[in-house]
Amino acid sequence: MMRPDLDIIQHWIAPGSRVLDLGCGDGGLLEYLKNTRQISEIGLEIDANNIQECLSKGVNVIEQNLNKGLQNFGDKSFDTVLLTQTLQAVNYPDVVIDEMLRIGRNCIVTFPNFGNWRSRLYLLRKGRMPVSKFMPYQWYDTPNIHFCTVRDFDVLCREKGIKVITRTVVDHLHQGNWYIKLWPNLLGETAIYHISR
Amino acid sequence: MPKTIPKDSVGIVTPQCLHFDEPLTLRSGKVIASYDLMVETYGTLNAAKSNAILICHALSGDHHAAGYHTDADGKPGWWDTCIGPGKPIDTSQFFVVCLNNLGGCAGSTGPTSLNPETGTFYGPDFPVVTVRDWVNSQLRLMHRLGIAQWAAVIGGSLGGMQVMRWSVSYPEKVRHAIMIAVAPKLSAQNIAFNEVARQSITADPNFHNGRYLEHGTYPKKGVMLARMVGHITYLSDSAMREKFGKSVDDPANPAITNPSIKSNFGRDLRSGKLSFGLDTDFQVESYLHYQGERFSERFDANTYLLMTKALDYFDPSVDYEGDLARTFANSNCRFLLISFSSDWRFPPERTREIVDALLEARKPVSYLEIEADQGHDAFLLPVPRYMEALTTYLQRVSDEVNSQGAKS
Fold first, then answer.
1. Cα A8 off chain centre by
2. Do B389 and A55 touch (CB under 8 A)?
3. First CA to last CA distance, chain A
4. Mean pLDDT of all residues in chain B?
5. Which superfamily does CATH assign the domain made up of B16-186+316-407 to?
6. Is B255 helix (H, G, I), strand (E, B) or coil?
7. Which residues of B touch A42 (CB under 8 A)?
8. The predicted structure's pLDDT at residue A1
């Protein structure tokens, strides 16, 4: 099954466009976009098994660590730069966002919303960092070192003068009904931002 | 000697010598009026002639990439780990072509061939050939075989440079370009090592300005030295550490009297008792002697000089004011590049230069940096992740070939 955030973002990708996916995982999203949107794609990944998966899907993949910079990519060299469920795992999220906006004409960022009521309740009740099915790690061994909330990201965009084209917040059933729209930071589980500069 | 030939081998292969009469104008301006190319092929060319893969050899390679020449053959071809039925370059799917490049010494026209103009060996008169000249001669071979487009061109090191040249000069003739352990051009350090190799050959008293064959002799010592210095650059420090000496923890090692000594990371590099003279004291010395000796028995000195020059001269960006991205502007294939972490001859950063140029040129490219201890030599060895990546990538290429066949 398609991850909920992926189904939404495909509609923001122009047919035949050039797409860079930072932390492309097994290449599933890029493969899907190749089939549905005829994109030309490049994925960046550091995990050997994921890279192997990309090769088997015929997805172009470069072994490159996001945390070591993206200077090798030219300004506005891609139509869209994607960062799906990876923002919270990079060393300097603000630097990566700046770089994405330099490289892509527009960018799509998705991340788990740490402001969700479940996280808040967990912390309030147990006084410990939340561990759940979706975030199964302990605080000391998690790859997710920079959790943020929808409101945090809004503030970052405002401070950096980033234009938010669309903001969608969904729950795990990937529904964006009226009450999630009303209280996105409380009810939303996954935040999906379409941004540009 | 292989008592029985392994199942995943291409088996006994017979090279063929193909003669070409159409003169070939070289980059230097010189012309080779006619020439022979020594060629081996494995697998079967399909009816659409769309499943052909060209293998380009590196400095010391030749046309014998896989299989055995006779039952008594001790060693298979130089890339037998990769080429065969069920291997990464799967000969049950692909028709694989490998040739000895011009200027070589394994049967193709080169310094040891007779010069029709003089009636004696070419020797030092054989013109300097470049990677571009090789690719032009490979194009003639391609036409001879009736192939319009290679499903893939594959090579490591100097072979990878030929792949790069194919993708630049003949974009419509290559579907996939696979370059392994490669650099866009040599570094000053690379050229320096090549120059030491050349000097050791030309300084040998038996070199006779390259006319050693006419003098009935051979600069063996010089070729040995050249190979020894070259060989060091193919290995990594850790690969050499791993290869030589005995573990100090090894109770069967009589040289160790005090097992608590952990110098050299727990290895004793000595071959026996120290001679306190100029005899061979360490295993690495005898290894290099052996490698150099064996190489000097099969490799022509003039060819070695030519091959290192071809390396030094390689720079595909030369026609584009040094702009590598512009060099690839017309390329029309998909690219796969692979580097190895411990390769200090063509380290990953050098391969990345090519990857970055391809990204800038907006070409479809994949790049893998394989963790491997074996240095530059890793490209010839069955490093598991490397083998898996090649297998997977080429399986896609094969699927592509088959789906095309279904369409036509």
1. 12
2. yes
3. 33
4. 93
5. Alpha/Beta hydrolase fold, catalytic domain (3.40.50.1820)
6. coil
7. 359, 364-365
8. 46
Q: Could you give the C-alpha distances from B150 to A156, B96, B134, B206, B387, in angstroms and in order?
A: 51, 10, 16, 43, 21
Active site residues of B: 157, 343, 376
Cβ partners under 8 Å of residue A108, min gap 6:
A9, A12, A80, A81, A82, A83, A84, A192, A193, A194, A195
CB contact under 8 A, A62 and B362: no
Q: Which residues contact B326 (CB under 8 A, 6 or more apart)?
A: B317, B320, B361
Q: What is the CATH number of the domain that holds A26?
A: 3.40.50.150
Residue ranges per domain, chain B?
Answer: 16-186+316-407
Give me the average pLDDT of each 10-residue run along chain A (197 residues).
72 96 96 95 98 98 96 97 94 96 97 91 92 86 92 96 94 73 87 95
User: Cβ contact (<8 Å) for B364 and A60?
Assistant: yes
Phi and psi torsions of B335, nearest 5° = -115, 140
Q: Does pTM top 0.90 for this prediction? A: yes
Q: Chain A: nearest CA to B370, how far in angstroms?
A: 9
Tell me if A68 is assigned to some domain. Answer: yes
Position A167 in a domain: yes
Report the gap between the CA of B367 and the closest CA in chain A (Å): 5
Number of domains in chain A: 1
The verdict on A17 touching B (C-beta cutoff 8 Å) is no
Q: Is residue A128 part of a domain?
A: no
Domain membership of residue A119 (yes or no) is no
Chain A window 23-82: which residues touch B at a Cβ cutoff of 8 Å? Answer: 40, 42, 48, 51-52, 54-56, 58, 60-64, 72-74, 77
Q: Which domain holds residue A8?
A: 4-114+146-196
Backbone angles phi, psi at B305, to 5 degrees: -65, -45
**pLDDT tens digits, B243-273:** 887 666 555 555 555 555 555 555 678 877 7
Q: Which residue of chain A has the CA closest to B371?
A: A48
Percent of chain B with pLDDT over 70: 93
At CA B52, angle to CA B47 and CA B401, rounded to 5? 65
Q: Is the ipTM of this complex over 0.90?
A: yes
What count of residues does chain A have? Answer: 197
List, in order, residues 6 or more apart from A143 with CB less than 8 Å away. Answer: A89, A137
Measured in degrees and rounded to the nearest 5, phi and psi for residue B121 equal -60, 145
Q: Are B91 and B11 in contact (CB under 8 A)?
A: no
Put simply, the answer to whether B362 touches A18 (Cβ < 8 Å) is yes
